[in-house]
Design goal:
With about 525 residues, this protein is mainly α. The protein is built from 18 helices and two strands. It has two domains: about 400 residues, MFS general substrate transporter like domains (Growth Hormone, Chain: A); about 60 residues. Helix content is about 65%, strand content about 0%. Helix 5 runs antiparallel to helix 6. The longest helix is centred in the last third of the chain and has 36 residues. Belongs to the major facilitator superfamily. EmrB family.
């Protein structure tokens, strides 16, 4: 029997990565630039959460707490209005142009807010900041889908989830530390140099794209989107607020609902000529729809929990703001660190072995939160939050990958815009529902003579019970998830908006080579 001998120096016998699994040329530096930039802008998004009381005490601003809250509300409203337009923007402009506009807006808004001599200019700075922030995340998601082959998308989406988890958690923690030693202005001025550096990096590394055939802009869709999504988010933000005129909440929600219905009807009509501002044909793909449903419930539960935890820890357990930030930080770090691991597992196993156990862990954590007492030690709350974060770590990366991976290439931009819009609306809805349920029950119990801390916890327990019941629907929806085949339209879209026509991600040997698509918006795939 002949014995096989390995060639000298050939210690690694692992097969080379298939050509179809390789990242598109230049893709790594583009994605890295967008990832770091997303971290910077999302970090500043949550930075004001712990600075409200400090701003109220600043005599130069001369504001009360309700006015200070507008720094957060205006940011959310701007995000809700701009994100639905990003699908059209990504079809109209190259990645380089959009990136420079987004980071330029963020830098400008940050500087305005940092040196603002009045509250009006500070508010303006936050709005300008938000207009840039709203573009960066959909741009990152779409670019990953364009440049990364299907077999490796899970790993990259896991890295994106790291940014999404760690940056919002670090924002309040860093802000709390800054407020201990410096003025609130350094929350903005401290991040401005890093934002400028990333603007310059993108300006140097993202090459100019070729001229593109612009899709027609439907001017009427923009105010309808502003009224629909903006009105809905604003109305939801008013729920649970005290001292408001009786008409304000129903009017805001009514304007939002009417505007949203009009916007949807308008987009359905415009889709027939490929001129929709936000293409709703994404919902014709069942995997996208199922993923978005689970994502919506998950975002509502996550944001609702994040808004209640500081109230519980401060008002019921008596902790300081910086301590609260440090308690919530480990869970976010756990989610972020597990993101790339879960992404790699998705590439091997698909979504179900990850999302279904993750959803059950989230359900377990929500049930545990219904048992909170005034005597609960802070470290028990920390463990509960880490259990919840563990569940979300196994849920979000597969959801992002399945949702966009189930779409044809020319709908990636609109799919990213829809995912971002769902995050904003679901987050506002979750926050409003949790706060309203808690505040209503707390007010009833305080009127009956129950101590404020005990009343707050009872209201929070009811809110968590409702969240757990809603999350059961999310668990059921995960049963419909599966790993999508690479959805390729009739004319494959292999363009890279940053660099002009992109070399196609190589197909397996059996596949028939396809020519790169022209730099125009591809038509809907032929049936």
């Amino acid at each position: 029997m002949q014995t096989h001998t390995e060639p000298a120096g050939s210690s690694d016998t692992r097969p080379a990565r298939p050509a179809s699994d390789r990242l598109a040329p230049g893709g790594a530096i583009i994605i890295a630039t967008l990832l770091v930039s997303a971290f910077v802008v999302i970090l500043n998004e949550t930075a004001m959460n712990v600075a409200i009381s400090t701003l109220v005490e600043d005599p130069q601003l001369g504001i009360d707490e309700r006015a200070a809250q507008w720094l957060t509300t205006a940011f959310m409203l701007t995000m809700a209005v701009v994100i639905p337009t990003t699908g059209w923007l990504m079809a109209r402009f190259s990645t380089r142009t959009l990136y420079i506009a987004a980071m330029g807006s963020f830098v400008l808004g940050t500087l305005i807010a940092g040196i603002a001599p009045s509250f009006a200019l500070l508010l303006l700075g936050r709005v300008v900041q938000a207009s840039g922030t709203a573009i960066v995340f959909p741009l990152l998601m779409t670019t990953v889908m364009q440049l990364v082959p299907p077999a490796r998308r899970g790993a990259f989406m896991g890295t994106i989830s790291l940014v999404m988890s760690v940056a919002p958690a670090l924002g309040p923690t860093l802000s709390g530390a800054i407020l201990q030693i410096a003025s609130w202005r350094w929350i903005f001025l401290g991040v401005a140099p890093l934002a400028v550096v990333m603007l310059l990096v993108g300006w140097r590394t993202l090459r100019r794209g070729d001229a593109q055939t612009p899709p027609r802009l439907d001017v009427l869709s923009i105010p309808l989107a502003a009224l629909g999504f903006g009105g809905l988010v604003y109305g939801l933000s008013l729920m649970g607020a005290e001292g408001l005129p009786a008409w304000q909440l129903p009017v805001a929600l009514g304007v939002g609902v009417v505007g949203l219905v009009a916007f949807v009807l308008r987009q359905v009509r415009l889709q027939r000529s490929d001129a929709a501002l936000l293409d709703l044909r994404t919902f014709r793909h069942p995997l996208f729809t199922a993923s978005v449903v689970v994502m919506m419930i998950a975002m509502a539960a996550m944001f609702g929990t994040l808004i209640l935890l500081p109230l519980i820890l401060q008002d019921a357990l008596g902790l300081e703001p910086l301590q609260v930030g440090l308690i919530t930080l480990p869970g976010a770090l756990l989610t972020g660190l597990l993101g790339p691991v879960v992404g790699n597992l998705y590439d091997r196993w698909g979504p179900r072995p990850l999302v279904i156990p993750g959803a059950l862990v989230v359900l377990t954590a929500l049930v545990l939160y219904t048992q909170l007492q005034v005597t609960t030690p802070w470290w028990v709350v920390l463990l509960m939050q880490m259990v919840l974060s563990l569940g979300f770590a196994f849920t979000f990366p597969p959801l992002f990958t399945v949702s966009l991976g189930s779409l044809p290439h020319h709908l990636y931009g609109h799919g990213s815009a829809m995912v971002g819009t769902v995050q904003q609306v679901a987050g506002a809805a979750g926050t409003a529902a949790f706060v309203t349920i808690m505040a209503t029950r707390q007010a009833q119990l305080v009127a009956e003579g129950v101590a404020r801390g005990d009343a707050l916890l009872e209201g929070a327990r009811i809110a968590f019970t409702g969240a757990a019941a809603l999350w059961v629907l999310g668990v059921i929806a995960t049963l419909w998830l599966r790993k999508p085949a690479d959805a390729v339209p009739a004319e494959p879209d292999h363009r890279d908006p940053a660099t002009g026509p992109l070399p196609a991600v190589p197909e397996p040997a059996a596949a028939t080579p396809a020519e790169p698509a022209a730099r125009s918006v591809p038509a809907e795939p032929a049936p």
